[in-house]
Amino acid sequence: MPKLIYWLLMPLLLISAGTYLPDSKLAKNVRANVWPRIKNELTDKGLKFNSAIYLRIFKDESVLEIWVRSRPRYKFFKSYNICYFSGGLGTKTRTGDGKSPEGFYTIGSGQLNPASNYYLAINIGYPNKVEKLKGYTGDAIMVHGHCASIGCYAMTDPGIEEIYTLIYKALEAGQQKIRLDIFPFRMDEQHMKAYAADPGITFWKTLRPGYTLFEKEHMPQVPGIKGHDYHF
Question: Is residue 147 among the annotated active site residues?
Fold first, then answer.
């Protein structure tokens, strides 16, 4: 959606936890419906519903995972099936290539779109700093509702209702940035060997340390930059 149209459609902003959060009647109604159920699910798993969250996507499994902070680490909460993404494995590099991004992203309050043409949507922040250094092009890459997309991750409406609400509530509770890591597959030794001949393997090797460190520590990793690549 063009930026001008997005801002024309942007509903009134709410002030919560010192942060402006875009909101809409639809998003409010969704929260009223799904948040009580989500709170019960969190409680059943021994998790607090005002905690920080972390998201990661595995393309080959078409799955989005949500992890919740339970000091000192994050614990797995729930996974959602991705209804559709385009372009198969391999990251997005240019406008119109039909690919969905892979890499390390952050979500802030300004990236919520409660008035999306795709029900509810969250901008993942593509291109990130590394992708800009590489000269990658494209924008408005979302995790959103419905089950159709070119470059985005479509979750269906019931799926995005819960994901959007969890992100909104985490930001409302004071989390400044939510990490979203997108991997082509689980980057263990077996998968790395299976895809060793793939043209994407050189790039995927730069993602692997972030995956491995989270698997070891259950703490989202913040990548640095070395040259034009991620560095841990």
Answer: no
